[in-house]
Design a protein that fits this description.
The protein is of the alpha/beta class. It has helices at 16-38, 42-52, 71-75, 91-104, 142-151, 172-192, 197-207, 212-221, and strands at residues 61-65, 83-88, 110-114, 127-133, 153-164, 224-231, 236-242.
Length: 243
Amino acid sequence: MTKKEVKPYGKEDQSKKAEVTEMFNNISGKYDFLNHFLSMGIDKIWRKKSIRFLKDIKPQRVLDIATGTADFALAALALKPKEIVGLDISEGMLKVGQKKIEKKGVTDIIRLIIGDSENLPFEENYFDALTVGFGVRNFEDLEQGLSEMLRVVRPEGKLIILEFSKPKKFPVKQAFGFYSKRIIPFLGKNISKDEKAYAYLPESVAAFPEGKDFIDILTKVGYKNVEAQTVSGGIATIYTGRK
């Protein structure tokens, strides 16, 4: 295990991928409530803003990586595509997402499948656009996952990555630091009943490359026209790129 690798449970005999799968299966029943409660609903605004970056290419086929409970996949309906595929390694999260899709009556457009983001079960150049929300920092092999994402998108297709980042300016930096390190782990542990899952969140954010460092990685694996836009004072960043 490298110095910078952060795992939810820190088990020596278990890979990060296995631990992330276990964690999301454990918290899947409380995930949506906690996600929207802890972010005060602002995560919904971030997803809507991210989706707007795809409007210019009018994608017909959209892939949502690490779809979880399908919030980003559902947000992509605003693009009016013919097909949306959501992929995740957690069966528990997908079961919650499937219920939401069925309730909304969009099973003819959105399809959820279990799968590994670092070994995607799709042919090259199939999708017009790809989204991933708060998922890439959970990859075991970041460059492999990013390369796979690029592989399945068509030439000139667009990729959107929404990920947490670390605010740099007062007072957002101090407020978010306290909230993420104290409040989120405390409430997350008591509501989800998983002691480690919501402590992993700030730890994984702290360890993840962001801003220029992440842009450099995206460029290295082949993304073109990479740009980054921070939201909510730098709490999260929307990265865009093309194939």
